[in-house]
């Protein structure tokens, strides 16, 4: 592999394939293929302190060798200790961000994060209906790590009744899955029932993250219900490093990146979970950033 940089500073890779050698004294014949980084678009909010939102998405997308593009839904005023206010975008300003991107770049995968208002959610729904954007990875952000409500009730209902129909996969944590499904979750059986209820709303696949279950003190179990109704369980050691900031954003961005790289959903989830687990495990050995929840 030979890394290159084009005029736009976008890294390219040449793959060399060695063919047959017709004569002992003849040189090998090489065939080169130019590959570009797949573009991953994140539609999400800004955490200026860098722990969550589009900053976390950009870091993750880049870590997987993809090219990040961004459309901003909200500017939050926050740090690791809490959220102190928000300034939301309008439907018009969101579309004005997205349209130039899709008119110029070939988007391979999309993830959505914070969609705070009904106006914003409906515009996202329209964008997926009216364009060739791929079905998104939806991280249904509802409450910040510090407990700040990040979505209004009207916006939530549009996510539940409209946006989920566009989803390649939705990635709720336990409280989010309970709100979406109406099912109280206390064990893996309830996680499966909630996943089925959420899939029935129109999502192609559902990944419920089990870090908030009562049994999470022993191991972390995530449950994936794929597009054909098969369940997969992903088990890992529960890493008790204190409150973590940005893990949901990071996981959904990692899944989108892996899908952009051509992985199947089950493989994409496995790789994304491994990436997040390694990032959380690294918190045990690195110095603390900020005074609140630990950004990964």
Kindly describe this structure.
The protein is of the alpha/beta class. It folds into two domains: 1-36, no CATH class; 39-295, UDP-N-acetylmuramoyl-L-alanine:D-glutamate ligase (3-Layer(aba) Sandwich), CATH 3.40.1190. It contains eight helices and 14 strands. Helix 3 (118-130) links the parallel strand 7 (107-112) and strand 8 (137-138). It is globular, with a radius of gyration of 20 Å. Mean pLDDT is 86; it is low at 1-24 and 26-32.
> What is the CATH level 1 assignment of the largest domain?
Alpha Beta
CATH topology of the largest domain: UDP-N-acetylmuramoyl-L-alanine:D-glutamate ligase
The CATH architecture classification of the largest domain is 3-Layer(aba) Sandwich
Low-confidence stretches: 1-24, 26-32
User: How many angstroms separate the termini?
Assistant: 30 Å
Largest sheet: 6 strands, mixed
Number of domains: 2
3D shape? globular
Work out the strand percent. Answer: 25-35%
How do the helices and strands follow one another from N- to C-terminus? Answer: EEEEHEEHEHEHEHHEEEEHHE
CATH homologous superfamily heading of the largest domain = Ribokinase
Instruction: Return the average pLDDT rounded to an integer.
Output: 86
